[in-house]
Every structure is written in structure tokens, then in C-alpha cells.
Amino acid sequence: MKVAVIGCTHAGTFATQATLAEHPDWDVTVYETHDNLSFLSCGIALWVGGHVADPQKMFYSNPEMLAQAGAHMKMQHTVLEADLDQKILRVKNLVTEEETTEKFDKIIITTGSSPVIPPIEGIDNPNVKLCKNWAHANELKKSAPDVKSVIVIGSGYIGAELAEAYATTDKQVTLIDALPHALGKNFDPNISEIVEQDYRDHGVTLALSEKVVSFSGTDQVTVKTDKNEYTADIAILCVGFRPNTGLFKGQVDMLGNGAILTDEYMQTSVKDVYAAGDSAAVHYNPTQKADYIPLATNAVRQGLLIGRNIETPTEKYMGTQATSAVELFGRTYSGSGLTVEGAKVRGIEVATTTLEQDYRPDFMPSTTPVLMNLMWDPKTRQVLGGSFTSMYDIAQAANVISMAIQTKMTIDQLAMVDMFFQPNYDQPVNYVNAIAMQAVAESK
Q1: Which residues are catalytic?
Q2: Which of 31, 103, 131, 141 has the least CB density, counted as fewest CB within 10 Å?
Q3: What are the pLDDT digits (tens) for 195-219?
Q4: Are the beta carbons of 151 and 162 closer than 8 angstroms?
């Protein structure tokens, strides 16, 4: 059985490993444009901020490891054409420029995503940087000692972390976003306002509700918005990602943005063609619909499932809640599922409950509050989302909410879930139980 894997970051790496683990005698060929694979791009801001001991450990696999597992590794090879019906690929070796054509029995599409680069005047300015892959990471890290001022465009997780990394290393930072709040797609305003104040307290200039209209300059870059102008040594574009699936347009079913749709076994609309990771849509459990949520956690699980299902449909995809967390200026933010704004955008009716309480008893030498939001269906009472922030590490609370959504738990059930009490860690009623209890009380 001949299998082609197109692209090899997270989904491709795990799909290759899982396929060979299940079928060690199969002929698996991996085509990857770059000379590296499995780079954890979520660590770029940590590296820039001086929190990575060894950048080589930001890779959890390499071509040699996959070759030892039995894969034929075609690094620095790009697929020029793909006929998915006939399972034929035309491939170019980027080193020798040689082109070859080969036929396969099965194809795995794990081509990932590309940074969104809007058609803005001056966007090709050399002082406008990207933050996606190993080359971008090296460029940002190399320039960091000499950079005195930075403009970060986009305040999602990547932009938010980069802004913090530069601010805590004594750079002059401006954070621009067209949305009215930082982390506006990840959290509701009562939580976003906290991180915004932390940015201001650390000297960051916030330019929210401002749309970038042009870039200019030579030694430095000037970013003009629809309201103001800002100048810095570099600007970093962090406005999102789009599926890198242009090769397959018109051949497989896709969402409007190009994310490839799959069934619950990760097969596309074309037989023996599979897709995973940032190139694919996910099943988003809070809405029970296909959505585009490019996260490494989704890519890993989808890649594993391809290997397990590639011969016979066996293990169903459980979907995702888009669970995540981030630490900014010593404060943790975590969440899973819908926010109020996210529900509104998707046309979902939710009820919401907010609660703030200390994470552990007041008789302890110290404690600190946890601010929480819980989203739930007013008709079924099922938990649809939750978010938390505190100077205490509440990251794992997002995993509790994720499991509640995954299992279709109601607020009544979440309120009574058995959670331990130990004064070092929590109250007699754990804070996750407490906000669910508050939701039950408000629902009556």
C-alpha cells in the first residue's frame, strides 16, 4: 500500500507515525517543503522573551526519526499538482529543481496553514515580520537584542504573547487590533479588560478598535491605522491563519475559507484521501458543527486518528472544545468552548454566569481571587463554555470545562461533580463547582 503525506508539521508527523505503527509494511512517503518538521511555534514568544533553555527542544521529532520508523522522507519537496481522484502527485525537489510524478493508493493532506497577509499598502516592507515557522522564529530572536521598539498587529494568543515578551524585555511596545478588546476572540470583555490593564501597567500602548491601512518607512516602519500612526523598529503581523489548501480547491468539500471537511474518521469527500490539522475543519462540540480552529492539539488528535482509520474506519473523532490557556505578566487565562461573543457570531443562544471568589480559604497565609465566566444552554442547561483568570494557576480549570462540554454535562451536574478539598489548593466548594452552583441558582 502506497501512502503519500503532504506536509509534515504536527498533523503530518502524527499521521505518519500512527500509520506506520499500524501498518509497518506500508510504503509511506512524506513531502515537506521545509528542511524541518514538528516545530512548536507556540514557543516563539517564550524564546524571544528568554524563557527557552534550548531552542532545538522546540522540535519533538525530526526527519531521521520518521525515517527510522519506516517513512521515505522527501524534505524540501513541494507538491505542485495533486489529482485526488487518480491519486497522482507532481512534486518538485526544491534543491535540485527536478520534477517527478507518482501515483499512490492513499493520500493524507496535512498541508497546515499560512499566515494571513492582508493586501495592505506597504505590507512587503522588510521591517514587517511574520510569526509562524522556524525561519520566522530565528529572525525575531536574532533581531531581539537590537530592537528597541515593536508594533504587534493582532492581539490573539500569538500577538498577545509577543507583546508581553517584548514588554518584559524593556522594549517599547504598541499592540494594535481592529477588535475593541485584547484577546477579544478568546475571552469576554470582563476578562480582556484585566489583561489590557496589565499591558498599560507595563508601558504597552494599546491601539484597539483600530484598523491598519498602510505601512511605510525604511530604517523603521510606520504603521498607519484608520485613527493614528505608530512608528517602531519592526512590526509583527499576527492577524490569523488560513488553510493552505489551494492545491485541492474544487476537488474536495471545504468550508468557505478553504478548510477541508472530513467525516468522523478523517476521510475527505474523496475516497482514500484524508485531511487533518490546520488544513482541515474540526467538529466543534459546543455548536455541533464544522468550524475552523487551528490548534496543535486538534492537529495531533486528527493525525493519530488517520493512522488508526486509514485501512478500516475504526475510531471516531470526538471533536474539539478549543481548550487553551496562556500566561501574561504572571496571570493565567484559560478557557474552553464558547464565549458570549463567540456564541453571538455563531448564532447560538447562551446564558452566562459570572463569579469571583478566592481560590482557597482566607485563613491561609495568602490567597487570590479567580474571575470566572460560565456559558450554558438556557434550554438544555448543557455547559457550552467557560473561562477563568487569576494570579493563581487555574489553567487546568479549562480542562474540566472541556470534559463537561465533551460529555454534554449540565450545569446541575457540574455543580455536584466530586472535587477534592485541601486548603492549600481550594475551598470546600471548588471554584468550578461554585460557578456552576451560581448558574443553577440564577436559572431558577
Answers
A1: 10, 42
A2: 103
A3: 999 999 999 999 999 999 999 999 9
A4: no
